[in-house]
Specification:
The complex is a heterodimer of chains A (135) and B (100). Chain A has three helices and five strands; from the N terminus they run βααββαββ. Chain A has 135 residues and is an alpha+beta fold. Chain A has a single domain, classed as Heat Shock Protein 90 (2-Layer Sandwich), CATH 3.30.565. Chain A has a five-stranded antiparallel beta sheet with strand order 1-2-3-5-4, covered by helices on one side. The radius of gyration of chain A is 15 Å and the shape is globular. Chain B has one domain (2-99): STAS domain (Transcription Regulator spoIIAA, 2-Layer Sandwich). Chain B is built from three helices and six strands, in the order ββαββαβαβ. Chain B has helices spanning 25-35, 54-70, 82-90; strands at 2-8, 11-20, 41-45, 49-52, 74-78, 98-99. In chain B, helix 1 packs parallel to helix 2 (54-70). The chains are: A alpha+beta (135), B alpha/beta (100).
Chain lengths: 135, 100
């Protein structure tokens, strides 16, 4: 298990992505799975940036671990901001016409579709969001 | 991400190279907005785009809407890889955008 703690700012997204990609390379992660994980990082970390400490900022920790059976990578996002459950929102209607389309909620929806599992809990004053992707 | 723009009369090709995400989407938006008025045909060539997130979708949707509002011209997206295609598919964007 490896983890890194950064400031919850947009500038940290490339830092987190590089950190996670570095870990994934050690496990021969397929390119497609890696890209889907990178997309998930962009969606979930930008959520933390926008909601956790708004309008200020604070620390965010990203943890990467690999588990067996089935072989999966688990990435955990932890912040100490206001309680925010991104899974509480209803899924967007992806059948609406172009005029009615909104982008809100699409990010988390893409993550749900691309990952095998996503869980949220608020514990000890921390938002803990976990994604699991089978390799 | 870098963005290459090529003009051939009223046909303009914009090629984003790298990753289209929260931090890079504004770059593409600026490039598209710069050619929106004069482009009769805007081609977004995704040949060297690795992936896009919802921040990229937002830019594509607002560009598509701007073309509809303009009443003339067309925006086309080509050379989409499998990961990007699946993002378009699950979000219903396949039915909205012109994807070749």
């Amino acid at each position: 298990m490896k983890e890194v703690t950064v400031e919850a700012t947009l500038e940290s997204i490339p830092v987190i992505t590089e950190f996670v990609d570095g870990q994934l390379e050690q496990f021969d992660c397929p390119v497609k799975a890696q890209m889907q994980i990178d997309i998930a990082i962009d969606e979930l970390f930008s959520n933390i940036v926008h909601y956790a400490y708004h309008p200020g900022t604070g620390p965010a920790t990203v943890r990467v671990e690999v588990i067996e059976e089935p072989l999966s990578v688990v990435i955990t996002f932890i912040d100490q901001g206001v309680p925010y459950d991104p899974l509480a929102k209803a899924d967007p209607d992806v059948t609406l016409s172009v005029e009615e389309r909104e982008i809100g909620g699409l990010g988390i929806y893409i993550v749900k579709k691309n990952m095998n599992e996503i869980t949220y809990e608020y514990k000890d004053g921390r938002n803990i969001l976990k994604i699991r992707k089978e390799l | 991400m870098t963005v290459e723009t090529k003009e051939n009369g009223n046909e303009i090709t914009i090629k984003p190279v790298g990753r289209l995400d929260t931090t890079t989407a504004p770059q593409l938006e600026i490039q598209i907005n710069a050619v929106l008025e004069k482009a009769e045909q805007l081609i977004l060539d995704f040949e060297e785009l690795e992936y896009l997130s919802s921040a990229g979708l937002r830019v594509l949707l607002s560009a598509h809407k701007a073309f509809m509002k303009k009443g003339s011209g067309k925006m086309l997206i080509c050379h989409v890889n499998e990961t990007i295609y699946e993002v378009f598919e699950v979000t219903g964007f396949l039915d909205i955008l012109n994807i070749e």
